[in-house]
Design a protein that fits this description.
The structure holds 2 protein chains of 2 kinds.
Chain A: E1 4-15, E2 18-30, E3 35-40, H1 46-52, E4 61-63, E5 68-71, E6 79-80, H2 87-90, E7 98-101, H3 105-108, H4 115-126, H5 131-144, H6 150-153, H7 163-175, E8 181-185, H8 193-210, E9 213-218, H9 221-227, E10 230-235, E11 238-244, H10 245-250, H11 255-263, E12 313-317, E13 320-323
Parallel strand pairs in A: 3-9, 3-10, 7-8, 8-9
Antiparallel strand pairs in A: 1-2, 1-4, 1-5, 5-6, 10-11, 11-13, 12-13
Helix pairs in contact in A: 4-5, 5-7
Chain B: E1 6-16, E2 27-38, E3 43-47, H1 54-61, E4 69-75, E5 80-82, H2 88-97, E6 98-101, H3 115-125, H4 132-145, H5 162-174, E7 180-184, H6 192-209, E8 212-217, H7 220-226, E9 229-234, E10 237-243, H8 244-249, H9 254-262
Parallel strand pairs in B: 3-8, 3-9, 6-7, 7-8
Antiparallel strand pairs in B: 1-2, 1-4, 4-5, 9-10
Chain lengths: 333, 281
Amino acid sequence: MSLLSVRDLTIRFRTDEGLITAVEGVDFDIAAGEVLGLVGESGSGKSVTAKALMQLNGKNTVYDPASHIVLNVPGQDPLEVLSLRRERDMIQVRGGAISMIFQEPMASFAPAITIGDQMVEQLTLHTEMGKKQARKHSIEMLDRVGIKEPDKRIDQYAFELSGGMRQRAMIAMALSTTPKLLIADEPTTALDVTIQAQVLDLMRDLVAEFGMGIMFITHDLGVIAQTADRVAVMYLGRIMETGPVREVIRNPAHAYTQGLINALPKLDDLDAPLTPIAGDIPSPLERPSGCVFHPRNPTLKPGSRYETEAPPMTEIAPGHFAALFPEDVPGQP
Amino acid sequence: MTLPLITIDDVSIHYPLGRRLIGTPPVLKAVDHVSLEIPKGSFVGLVGESGSGKTTLGRAILRAAPITEGRIRYSDGDVDYDVGSLGKEALRDYRTRAQLIFQDPYAALSPRMTVRDIIAEPLEVMKLTKSREETDQRVREIAAKCRLNLEHLRRFPHAFSGGQRQRISIARALVCGPKFVVADEAVAALDVSIQADILNLLKALQRDLDLTFLFISHDLSVVAHVCDYVAVMYHGQIKEQAPTRQLFANPGHDYTKTLLSAIPSLDPDDRHRARVYDPDA
């Protein structure tokens, strides 16, 4: 059994304009020590999926009854996250088995409480540690993520740290309770490239050291290539393609993945034209029927069955799946 | 030999940090002795990380930031301006010649105005047209060049996606017929699949309308694809400037090398440790 297994996850939001589908029929697994990259553009449902793992979506969220999110912590009974109803039951998941780091560290730290007090608070909530021990452990964690003079930094406020330092402190805080699963939602998007490279190094080191599973959410395929073992490409709430990161990037089977890769400016070929994906991302209120990508897919002929039927996830190579009807799998007669 | 369109000659921009009773107050050197030439018809990239001074320099060229030292000269064949000391009339004229495209198309457009009014506003404010018919004509022309439909003009910005909004924003910047455009992180807020479309549009507009661009960006791979010349800024100074191919094939400065190696490679087997730039080395 993998650490996390998500089956048939469908998430809708009640709004004034009616029920909006944000995520539809999503399946994936994350094993301990594995990094799953979730890549997608705005409106792809990647953050909504991540928040569902801790039931952090707003009160207007409707989880389809067929959805399952099962957390298997070794030595404990499997836990169905979506069946947890009371806030106090959620504590074993939020910050306990699962921690999360966010895109904007300035917005995730409380501005008027020192970094240290925030780190100590969560440790006393989730572990048996006393205040003194929690403080000592927090200093060790700050040191571990490469913050110099951690015994001074711990008494500072978030605004006194630079962007890169703040994100390191955020990571230290998320990992100090030794979660089994870390959700990183665009953790490097707000950082400069040189700082991003350092934070990615740090995250790779920490996976090797702590062995937790990571769900790494980003819009940047380059960041995925640098960190993930497996990748899932999402578009408008559906997984279009998933598989080992090398396979998906080198042999993308779905037109959306191919389009994303072609739209990226590449440094090794400055003459390659930039090819945008035709059209715009549709509004969530105008969700296309059939395969959600069909209105932007240049390879489809009018009247194709993708306009009315949602294709299944078809295996293309071992562990590599794409949302294609079996007759459209590349290399098939 | 024709003059460059923009000549930046040893420009510094300092901001005071507090006051002192005795001695000189400390200053923030946002831009520190920068020289750069932007030839007519070129697409010049200005790259750097946050706080490097790239936006401040762009704003100074548009007379939106005060120049502490040095000179910025604009010379398009019709007029020759010293940007730092423009009189009222000359400044009004300069505003029709040099324009800005903003980063965030969600923040740059007033939600209460129709797209037609948003694009027409610069013409009306600067009184560049004589009649409403002429204004409408100019708006329709530039909207078509930016690939907006006529029916789009009657709608409000909220009805548009990020890519369409950025096209509206570009049309607004170009409606008064500028010769020089500063695009400050013009694609940074857009999704990858849309970003390529806007970059291609900017390049097409440059050719059609004979524009000169200063393209400010933190993203080296984008700059590599659209610019013909690149300047790299770090802590207010230009560390290196060269034709794009040369800079990317053969970076001379250590900071440029660090920046290049920090771009995450799309090849999963090309994983290497981050380089750290040490300014004192």
